[in-house]
Amino acid sequence: MGTLDTKALTVRERSLDNPFWLPAHEGYALVPRPGATPRVDIPISETGAVDGTVRLKRTGEGIPGIPLRLVDQDGDTVAKADSAYGGFFAFDRLRYGSYTLRLGDTDTWKLVEPVELAIDHNAPVASRQTVEVHRVERDSE
Asked: pTM for the whole thing?
């Protein structure tokens, strides 16, 4: 008996009609049979987005250059970004679920408190999130 000739099957994301759709899985394996045309149904997931502003707790001023992490319910970092002009940040093409906004690697800033949020079919965009930070006080040496 011969070995099975497995073929890799993936979806080109740019071929999907909506830029907020993603394949549910990264890839599939298919074993084609001679003389048969396989029918393959591939699940597609809708995605959402999160945006907001990083603000200085004391003044409310938007702060650029703050590293952020978006963490899923399992504690895995699913996306990273730095705040831009005026403290604005955005994460897009996120699978539906519950997330926590946390600070990325920084010794200069401290998060006042993590921001909990969720995106789903009824609310695919968690907009205008506010992440408050304050500068870490350094002891003089």
From this structure: 0.80
Gap between the Cα atoms of 42 and 74, Å rounded: 25
DSSP state of 4: P
Model pLDDT for residues 91-135, shown as the tens digit of each residue? 999 999 999 999 999 999 999 999 999 999 999 999 999 999 999
Residue 40 lies in a domain: no
- Distance in angstroms (rounded) separating the CA atoms of residues 104 and 102: 7
Question: What beta strand segments (E) does the chain contain?
Answer: 7-9, 21-23, 28-30, 44-56, 67-72, 77-82, 88-95, 97-103, 109-111, 115-119, 125-135
Answer yes or no: is 11 within a domain.
no
Q: Is residue 63 part of a domain?
A: yes
List, for residues 28-82, the tens digit of each pLDDT value. Answer: 888 888 888 888 888 898 999 999 999 999 999 999 999 999 999 999 999 999 9
Give the residue carrying structure tokens 């502003």. 53
Three-class DSSP category at 31? coil
CATH number at residue 86: 2.60.40.10
